[in-house]
């Protein structure tokens, strides 16, 4: 019997083209130093079109995009139906406070694959193009006036392997002082 209280991978998604949403898959393969095999954002240097235009030699700190399914629950409560892959993420988790993790946190996904969190996804106008009004739900300000970005985190692949829905997520915090996540 599977313990459903453990942090888990809810869904995995990929797209070979620069579409906003990615298609759910039965399994994806993470490749060390590159990202998700067959995904348009896989590579050692930036693959996001706006970043390629600025500097195509920049290291790719956005090889894997992860979103917590709890965001979808919040969005549903305010009238937005969003499914895994819709916001362009590769891995949808449940039971992991992705946004609260420090930079450098390692996530073991399943038995083999391991990614390192590099920073926050910076929500952009494409989210409103996908669903008008959605951007204001995934970016806002807190009580102190600080910008809060809720559209997931970005990571690089340290150890490759297959990742599938139902896989456990094991969190390993970095040593030393913890650095708060910033957009990458």
From TrEMBL:
Q: Quote the Pfam families the UniProt record gives.
A: MOSC
TM helices/strands, residue ranges? none
Superkingdom as given in the UniProt entry: Bacteria
- Give any GO molecular function from the UniProt entry: pyridoxal phosphate binding
- Note the PROSITE patterns from the entry: MOSC
The record's listing under InterPro entries reads: MoCF_Sase_C, MOSC_domain, Pyrv_Knase-like_insert_dom_sf
Q: PANTHER family in the record, alphabetically?
A: METAL-SULFUR CLUSTER BIOSYNTHESIS PROTEINS YUAD-RELATED, MOSC DOMAIN-CONTAINING PROTEIN
What's the protein name?
Answer: MOSC domain-containing protein YiiM
